Amino acid sequence: MRQISLKLKLTLLYTFFMILLTCVALAILFSLSSREVLASVQNKLERRVQESAEDVEYRSGRLHLGSDFYSVVQDVYLSLYEEDQYFLYGRLPYGFDQQPELMDGAVRTIRDNGREWYVYDMSYQVTEEYTVYIRGITSVTDAEEGFTVTLRFAFILLPLMVLATAVIGYRFTHRTLQPVRKITDTVQKIREDADLSRRIGLEEKKGQDEIHVLAETFDDMLSELETAFLREKQFTSDVSHELRTPISVILAQCNAILAGDSYTDEQKEEIALIERKARGMSDMISQLLFLSRADQGRQLLNIEEIDLSELTGMIVEEEQMLAKEEGRSVRIEAQIEPGILAQADETLYIRMVTNLISNALRYSREGGTVEVSLERQAGEIAGRVTDHGIGISKEALPHIWERFFRADSSRTEKGHSGLGLSMVKWIAQAHGGNVYAESEEGEGSTFIFQFPEKQVKGEK
């Protein structure tokens, strides 16, 4: 199951809490508003009835009402009654058919025809001997329906608020996590091209937050690592250069001793062993110098057009002869497409293919075969070297390109330094291609190198 990204998690968390807070606030607001609406309706009813008393006058033995008494103000209907509940003047709302008893100063709730009404009666003494009642009626149902419309409108807006909250939260989270993404991209690029000179380089801001501090810490750590690796590379280069002279002297002296007759056969065998080990050290120093120059960008490519088919065939023949001289019974089978021309460095190509074939011979079983092929594939040149030897475990396979890596003790024989495959990978990549390995422990391994057929960029 795909893991949810941190950005989406934060967005969902932010949206959830915003929705929760909004719903709680709306619930409290509507609960309070419902009571406030009903209380406001009652207050408007009482105030309207009390103010209407100014429109009631008694002149010349008759009641006179102002025109405002008949007006429906704030949904309040007014009517005038005598003390015996005889209707005199005024208006009654449509749908209100009851005639509740007069009750001075009390707001009552009357249900009639499926609707609720507020009824408020107030006695008004027109003269010392004549008292009337002013009744006000207003609809509770209409007020509640208006509030319900507002409630529905709020519920319609709620999904839009949720969507807006999610979008804003996502954009805010995306912007906040941009530095983290930049840190991740920088680290991935460093892993891909092993370039420790890269820096995250977030923009300086006043009052930096924790992410900027983290980025600065990464940059400082990368600077320290780059310095340490440069020192290591320089140390490797210096040591390799310093060791070349004494190794050359040892080899020269061993050759001179072996050419003379002053030593017994047993002594010459011991000197021959020293000479073989010294030659192995010389080869390893040569490989270290090659990789050191490659790391420092000083290993130049001498690009020229060469016939890879012919050159690969010569390499196969030479490796087969060396295997016979060593007493190995491993046979090399070649399937090389003729006429493959490419722009490449001849010396480096020879070194790459030689390393792959010699590795295959080294780890093949006696009487076995090593298969070498070269062909064109969709605008690329593809080569394969396959052995049927001890193979490489799945755990060790990703690490075989690392310098000095040895999968197990059985792969350390015959002066194997663990640098050959590192050189092969660099040569393939320097030609604009790459090299891959497929292996099954106990069954054998296949190494595949590929690079473009067209001319590669290099220095002559």
UniProtKB/TrEMBL annotation:
E.C. number: 2.7.13.3
Q: Name one Pfam family in it.
A: HATPase_c
- TM ranges are 12-32, 153-172
Q: Where in the cell is it found?
A: Membrane
Q: Does the keyword Cell membrane apply?
A: no
Can you give the residue ranges of the Histidine kinase domain? Answer: 238-455
Q: Which residues form a coiled coil?
A: none
- Entry's Gene Ontology molecular function annotations: phosphorelay sensor kinase activity
Q: Which domain of life is it from?
A: Bacteria
Question: Which UniProt keywords are listed?
Answer: Kinase, Membrane, Phosphoprotein, Transferase, Transmembrane, Transmembrane helix, Two-component regulatory system
Q: Which parts of the sequence belong to the HAMP domain?
A: 174-230
Protein name in the entry:
histidine kinase
